[in-house]
Amino acid sequence: MEKYAHVIRYIEWLYEASDLVLGKLLGETPTRGEVLPLEDLFFTLQDVNLNIGLIGQLGGHVNFGMGMETALALAGAMRLLAFSEINEDAACALGELVNQIAENTCAPMLEAGIDSSLMPPFGLVCGSPEISWPHVQKMTASLGTPYGIIHLTVGLRLGKN
Prior knowledge:
Elements: H1 5-26, E1 31-32, E2 36-37, E3 41-43, E4 48-56, E5 58-66, H2 68-79, H3 88-103, H4 106-111, E6 116-126, E7 130-132, E8 137-145, E9 148-158
Antiparallel strand pairs: 1-8, 2-8, 3-7, 4-5, 4-6, 5-9, 8-9
């Protein structure tokens, strides 16, 4: 697992950030699932997928995947509305949620001496896309919420600026 050390560390930061953001939003911290390595090519079987990117010393992508009901409930919690479909407002709410979680990983990265920047959430995809991230170490983890599970797929590489 040595080659995955930077990915495991980032997943820990994601867990801590999720505890903060989702704990505040939902009134309870999410449960943490097992962290497992992935192959180079994988399919996400989640209904709704959002990605953030990292550039710099730590670079790559994080996919936040979830079922439709989970996505609708989380978007509703963000907007204090009920959603029956992923419309523009629901998509913005989910993007904002993912962005808040990702932003809360920046301070631990800086404290660890890692100079990286976040790209805003992108690629809201409904369906099960094939994802290929070559030349990065990939792992998967999960967050259990009262509304369902958020699946985290993290593909990162350590490099130079």
